[in-house]
């Protein structure tokens, strides 16, 4: 049996306290570092965040908000969720698909866009600005997957139709990487070949511990230290599929990994 003197016990106790304090200091220090990085990176993120919707001059309100998008590539491309875009545009009534760039007036600057690519099975879409000038673009991270526990942030327009066109940032971590298969938006889109494809087309999404809202659909999820986009917030298809048994929505949010956005971009080349 190991007997320790009172001095040894006291010394051991002091060492444990010191180790705990060092560990706590490291945790607080890392958290402070992430916050400092986020403060420094946000001025580079926010100019690339746009609101996606439709515009009709004779309508009130003229702009109908549908979700968030973010500028990538050459400054003329906007990434968002496919479900954010309307099925049809009433062009005969001069309705147009647009983005709104915050600033430049009380309501922001309205820019016309065209849909150039979409991937319904990943709920991603790309828009192209109809004319210049180019907007500041966000960098996309490499295709490698992120790690569980990694710090993240996302910026968008939560409930934008109510809270307005002010970009809002949330931060958290990747709490899990979970499998999902996103169904089509409408049953008429399903056919035997597509059903077989969906049954074999399970892919992984990021589960986040930060709360996103419907207007956040299409928001970029980024590394708060580098500003590189690692995913795209999805608040409809993934959430409804994963949580269909819940009577009330949870605070869990989901994001499509950026590797699928890379694949969609490759279709344009």
From TrEMBL:
For this protein, the record's InterPro entries field holds:
Peptidase_S1_PA, Peptidase_S1_PA_chymotrypsin
Coiled coil, from the record: none
Give the top-rank taxon of the lineage listed in the UniProt record for this protein: Bacteria
Q: Which Gene3D superfamilies match?
A: Trypsin-like serine proteases (2.40.10.10)
One short Pfam family name for this protein?
A: Trypsin_2
**Name of the protein in question:** Peptidase S1
């Amino acid at each position: 049996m190991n007997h320790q003197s009172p001095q040894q016990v006291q010394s051991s106790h002091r060492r444990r306290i010191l180790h705990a304090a060092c560990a706590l200091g490291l945790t607080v220090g890392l958290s402070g570092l992430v916050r400092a990085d986020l403060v420094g990176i946000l001025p580079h993120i926010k100019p690339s965040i746009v609101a996606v919707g439709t515009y009709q001059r004779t309508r009130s309100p003229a702009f109908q908000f549908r979700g968030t998008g973010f500028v990538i590539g050459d400054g003329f491309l906007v990434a968002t969720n496919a479900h954010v875009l309307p099925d049809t545009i009433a062009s005969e009534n001069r309705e147009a698909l647009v983005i709104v760039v915050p600033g430049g007036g009380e309501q922001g600057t309205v820019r016309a866009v065209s849909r150039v690519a979409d991937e319904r099975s990943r709920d991603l879409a790309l828009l192209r600005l109809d004319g210049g000038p180019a907007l500041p673009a966000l960098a996309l991270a490499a295709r490698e997957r992120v790690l569980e526990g990694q710090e993240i942030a996302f910026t968008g327009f939560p409930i934008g139709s109510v809270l307005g066109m002010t970009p809002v940032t949330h931060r958290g971590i990747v709490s899990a990487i979970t499998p999902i298969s996103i169904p089509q938006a409408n049953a008429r889109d399903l056919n035997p070949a597509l059903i077989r494809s969906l049954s074999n087309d399970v892919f992984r999404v990021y589960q986040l511990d930060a709360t996103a809202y419907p207007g956040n659909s299409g928001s970029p999820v980024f590394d708060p230290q580098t500003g590189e986009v690692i995913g795209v917030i999805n608040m409809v298809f993934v959430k409804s599929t994963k949580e269909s048994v819940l009577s009330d929505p949870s605070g869990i949010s989901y994001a499509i990994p950026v590797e699928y956005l890379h694949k969609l971009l490759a279709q344009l080349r």
